[in-house]
Specification:
94 residues, alpha+beta, 21% helix, 30% strand, globular
């Protein structure tokens, strides 16, 4: 199997919700198949949501979130990626 790298981070204290980034299949003939296989092996028969970086046509990175419906959501009120979140509030939510 091609080299695959993984990043995992729990999003809730109960450890039932996590974000995982899989990266690999670089310089291979078929990175889509390699990453599909890696995702299938990682998730097994558990439910998950998967995100693929389509705008940049990047088949080497997959983002998987498990337990997405268990997260606490806030109203979207003009938050932007370039603004810092309230770290104190964020830490207490975790």
């Amino acid at each position: 199997m091609a080299k695959i790298e993984i990043f995992e981070e729990y999003l809730t204290e109960d450890e039932n919700t996590r974000i995982t980034i899989l990266r690999g299949g670089l310089n291979t003939h078929n990175p889509f198949a390699i990453m599909n296989d890696a995702v299938a092996k990682y998730v097994g028969n558990k439910g998950y949501n998967e995100f693929i970086e389509i705008p940049l046509n990047n088949p080497w990175v997959r983002v998987i979130i498990s337990g997405i419906n268990k997260l606490e959501y806030d109203p979207f009120e003009n938050q932007t990626l370039d603004k810092e979140i309230n770290k104190k509030e964020w830490i207490t939510k975790r």
